[in-house]
C-alpha cells in the first residue's frame, strides 16, 4: 500500500494533463513501492483520477497493491487541465480532453512524454513474452538471470524538463524536489519487469547471475531532441568509431550537467512535448558469462605450433595445439569464441612430454554450462581420440580467479628439458662429464634474434639449476636440464652468435648446435590432478 498526500495533488494534476503516464507520475511523486508500479496500467490511471476527484485531507486515497498480469495499454485522457510551462519557462494553458471515448478512438496509445512508452507498452505481457521467446530460442542453460536495459539518450533530456516543471510547481507550495529524489526510470522498469520475466522463465532474477538478458531501446527522434546540447556543450560530443551517433547516454548526461537551467529552458520545451513515436526495442540479446576449462596437454609432433601460425595473413601450418583442443570444447559448450592461455609455450619443433603443460581456455558466451565430471572425462577422451599429435589430461571446469595460479610466479617456476646436441669436434664421455657438476649457472640472455621481431630488446638473467649429460657418440650427446622458467634453451646450446653467455659451445670450447628439444616437465602445481 502507498499513499499520495496533499502535496502530490498538484503534481499529479499537472503531469497527467501534460501527457505523462501514471508510472512516471509515481516516480516524480517519489513513490518507492515496487508492487505499486506493477499494477495494471488502466487501474493506475483510474486510481490517479479518483485521487484527484475525491481527495480529502482527513481521508486520503490508498492504492491497494496487487500483482495481476498486465493488460494491453489503453491510455485515458484526463478531464482537467492545469497550467504548464512553455519552452521559455513561461506558464501556458494546457488544453484538457473531455471526451474520453473520442480520445481512445483517435489514438489507442498516447505515448508518455517522459518515458516514451518504456513504462507503458514495454511493461505489458506481450512484450515480456517476446523477450522470453527470444531467450528460449537462444537455447541457453541458466539457473538465474540478470536483466539490463539500454535507454534512448533523450530520456535524460525529457526527464530533466519534467523535473524542472515539477520543481517549479512544488516551489509554489514552498517545497523542494531534488533530482536524486525521483525514482530512476531503469529502476522502476526493472521493478515491473523482473517478476514477469522470472515467472515466465521459471528462474529468479539475481544481480550476480552470469546469464544476462538485455534489451536495447531506441527512438527515431534522439538526434533531433539532443541536437541543442551539441550546440551548447560541443566539448561533450566527440565522434567515436564504434558509435553511430555522437549522442550517447553518457555524453548527453555530461552535457546536462554542464548546461545552465535557463539555457536548457530556452531550447527544450517544458513540459516536454508529446512524442511523435513510441520507443522501439532495437535488440533483445542474451549472454552467458564465460566458462573456463583447464587441463594439461602433451604435444608429440615436431611440426605443430601451439597457436595458429599465420604470417602476413598466410597460414603456414594447417593446425595448432589450441585449435585441436578448442574445436571440441567450442562444439560441446556451444560458445561464440574462445581465448587460449598456457604456462609458457614451446616452439613448433619442440615436443611437450611428461605430465604436460598447464593450459586454460575461456569459452565466451557458452550456451551450455553444466557438465558432470563424467561428461568432462568423455570430452577429454574425444579430444584425445581426434589426433595423435596431442593428448590432454586433467580436463576440468575452473573459475576465472583460479587461472591466476597458472601465471603466479611464472618466472620463479622451474622446467626440465631434454636436448639432443651436436658438436663439430669429436667428444668423449669425459669431455662432457663436468657439465653434471655445474649447479645454479647464471646466464645473461640477450633477446634471441629469432624472437626479436615480437619481443623487446633486453638482457635477461636466467639460471640453469642442474645439468646431466648422456653420451651418445663422438658428435652427439643428450643433455637433461632443470632451468628457471623463461630460459631460452636453444640459445643456451648454440650461443645465438654470442648473445647468450655462457653457452654449451663456450663451455665445451667448440661449436655446438641443438638437433632436438623436448619439454619433460613444467613444474606448476595446477590444475589439480584428476583420476584420468
From TrEMBL:
Its EC number is 5.4.99.25. GO terms for cellular component: mitochondrion; nucleus. Keywords: Coiled coil, Cytoplasm, Isomerase, Metal-binding, Mitochondrion, Nucleus, tRNA processing, Zinc. It comes from the Eukaryota. InterPro entries: PsdUridine_synth_cat_dom_sf (IPR020103), Pus10-like (IPR039894), Pus10-like_C (IPR048741), Pus10_N_euk (IPR048742). Residues 292-523 form the Pus10-like C-terminal domain. GO terms for molecular function: metal ion binding; RNA binding; tRNA pseudouridine(55) synthase activity. GO terms for biological process: tRNA pseudouridine synthesis. Residues 112-286 form the Pus10 N-terminal eukaryotes domain. Gene3D superfamilies: 1.10.10.2050, 3.30.70.2510, 3.30.70.3190. It is found in: Cytoplasm; Mitochondrion; Nucleus. It holds the Pfam family Pus10_C. It catalyses: uridine(54) in tRNA = pseudouridine(54) in tRNA; uridine(55) in tRNA = pseudouridine(55) in tRNA. NCBIfam families: pseudo_Pus10arc (TIGR01213). This is tRNA pseudouridine synthase Pus10. It comes from Pelecanoides urinatrix. The lineage of its organism: Eukaryota, Metazoa, Chordata, Craniata, Vertebrata.
